[in-house]
Design brief:
The chain is rod-shaped. The protein is mainly α. It contains 5 helices and 3 strands; from the N terminus they run αααβββαα. It has a domain of about 120 residues: Zincin-like (2-Layer Sandwich). α3 packs across α5 and α4 crosses α5. Bound molecules: zinc ion.
Length: about 190
C-alpha cells in the first residue's frame, strides 16, 4: 500500500496544514489564484464529502471545508500532471516537492486571499440582496400599473356606454328633424 504510506507521511509532515481548514469560499478563491498562476485548466469542485479529494484532467474535487493541505495536494497533482514523465508515480518525491512549493505560495498569501475571498462573497451577497429588492420593487410597480390599467379600462367602458347612448339619442333627433322638415315642406 504505497499510497497509504505516502498519505500517512504527508499527514505527519504537513500536520499544521492538515489542521488548517478553509471555508469553501476561501478554497475557491485560493484555487482561482493558483490556477491562474500555474495555468491549470481543471475546474474546482467542492463536494459535500467530509474528507479527501482527487484530481483528474478536467476537475479537482476537494471535500467540504478542505484543509489547506488537501487543496495543495490536489493542486500539486494538477501541476505535476503537466510535466509528468511516463512511468513516474502519482505520489512521488516530485509531487511532494511541488506540494511544498504550492503550500509556500498559499501560506505567503493566505491572510490577504482569505480577506479578499470574504470581501467578495460579502459583496456578492449584497448585490444579490440588491437585485432581489429591485425585482420586488418591479413586481410592486407592475401590480400598481395593473390596477391603474384596470381602472382605466373600466372608465373607458363607462365612456363607451355614454357614447353609444349619445349616438342613439342623436339618431333619434335626426329622424325627428327630418320629419319636421318634411312636414314643413308640405305645409308651404
Ligand atoms: Zn494524491
Amino acid at each position: 500500500m504505497p499510497h497509504l504510506k505516502y498519505y500517512d507521511k504527508e499527514r505527519e509532515t504537513f500536520k499544521a496544514q492538515y489542521e488548517n481548514k478553509l471555508s469553501n469560499t476561501e478554497a475557491t478563491h485560493i484555487y482561482k489564484r493558483l490556477a491562474s498562476r500555474y495555468k491549470l485548466r481543471q475546474r474546482l469542485c467542492v463536494t459535500t464529502r467530509s474528507w479527501g479529494g482527487n484530481c483528474s484532467r478536467y476537475r479537482i474535487k476537494v471535500c467540504n471545508k478542505p484543509p489547506v493541505a488537501i487543496l495543495a495536494h490536489e493542486i500539486a497533482h494538477a501541476i505535476h500532471w503537466k510535466t509528468r514523465q511516463s512511468g513516474e508515480r502519482w505520489h512521488c518525491k516530485r509531487h511532494e516537492t511541488i506540494m511544498r512549493r504550492v503550500l509556500r505560495v498559499i501560506e505567503t498569501n493566505l491572510i490577504d486571499w482569505k480577506e479578499m475571498a470574504n470581501k467578495q462573497s460579502e459583496q456578492r451577497a449584497k448585490s444579490f440582496e440588491h437585485r432581489l429588492q429591485r425585482r420586488e420593487a418591479n413586481i410592486e410597480y407592475s401590480k400598481s400599473l395593473e390596477g391603474k390599467l384596470e381602472r382605466t379600462l373600466a372608465g373607458m367602458k363607462r365612456w363607451k356606454t355614454k357614447q353609444r347612448r349619445a349616438e342613439t339619442a342623436l339618431k333619434k333627433l335626426n329622424r325627428r328633424k327630418k320629419l319636421y322638415e318634411r312636414l314643413l315642406a308640405k305645409s308651404q
